[in-house]
Specification:
The complex is a heterodimer of chains A (113) and B (109). Chain A has 113 residues and is mostly beta strands. Chain A has strands at residues 4-7, 10-13, 19-25, 31-38, 42-51, 54-57, 64-66, 76-78, 87-94, 103-104, 108-112. In chain A, a hairpin with a 2-residue loop joins β5 (42-51) and β6. Chain B is an all-beta fold. In chain B, 38% of the residues are buried. Classes of the chains: A mainly beta (113), B mainly beta (109).
């Protein structure tokens, strides 16, 4: 039982490049979410999903796309990377929306030059 | 905008002492949770307290909730160097969990 797996762990991009951050969970959780963590800002919600085929925006969705084609996977796409997207990204899941404890991945450290 | 705000932002104590962190929030909540983050790692869930509960214990952790003051506290007793981490409160008010900015705890051996 691996829990929540994020790949890659580190990534460096040039401004304008695109990439996908992968997130997979093996706990059959319906709810999955993406947060970004910046120094002094805590964690801010980017997008979340309450089940396959259903996604919604969080606090800071601009510049990011998500899709949820399966229960297990919730990839986060950066369409045209900007330096402001330099951050640590965390994927999290729980067995229902919001109310119960979240299980976090180990994070992806992204630098956009 | 963030719902919960932790206080203090940073706390440094000696091993064996107790550490107290506070969280204040703005609106009615369903539950409040505390998480720990070791440097460079993902967050780990510590404890969940529901809005109809006033106190909860888990090992060396004690959490209180005062809904009239919209505040919660996390007490770590007999702290150890391994407790050095950032601690976050997160509130559930019918939407995805909203996290505060955290308290950075340093326990000095």
């Amino acid at each position: 039982n691996a829990g929540v797996t994020q790949t890659p762990k580190f990534q460096v991009l040039k401004t304008g490049q695109s990439m996908t951050l992968q997130c997979a969970q093996d706990m059959n959780h319906e709810y999955m979410s993406w947060y970004r963590q910046d120094p002094g800002m805590g964690l801010r919600l980017i997008h979340y999903s309450v089940g396959a085929g259903i996604t919604d925006q969080g606090e800071v969705p601009n510049g990011y796309n998500v899709s949820r084609s399966t229960t297990e996977d919730f990839p986060l796409r950066l369409l045209s990377a900007a330096p402001s997207q330099t951050s640590v990204y965390f994927c999290a899941s729980s067995d229902r929306q919001g109310g119960e404890k979240l299980f976090f991945g180990s994070g992806t450290q992204l630098s956009v030059l | 905008s963030q719902q919960g705000e932790e206080d203090p932002q940073a706390l440094s104590i000696q091993e064996g002492e107790n550490a107290t962190m506070n969280c204040s929030y703005k609106t009615s909540i369903n539950n409040l949770q505390w998480y720990r983050q070791n440097s460079g790692r993902g967050l780990v869930h510590l404890i969940l307290i529901r809005s109809n509960e006033r106190e909860k214990h888990s090992g060396r952790l004690r959490v209180t909730l005062d809904t009239s003051k919209k505040s919660s506290s996390l007490l770590i007793t007999a702290s150890r160097a391994a407790d050095t981490a950032s601690y976050f409160c997160a509130t559930d008010w019918g939407t995805p969990l909203v996290f505060g900015k955290g308290t950075r705890l340093s326990v000095i051996a």
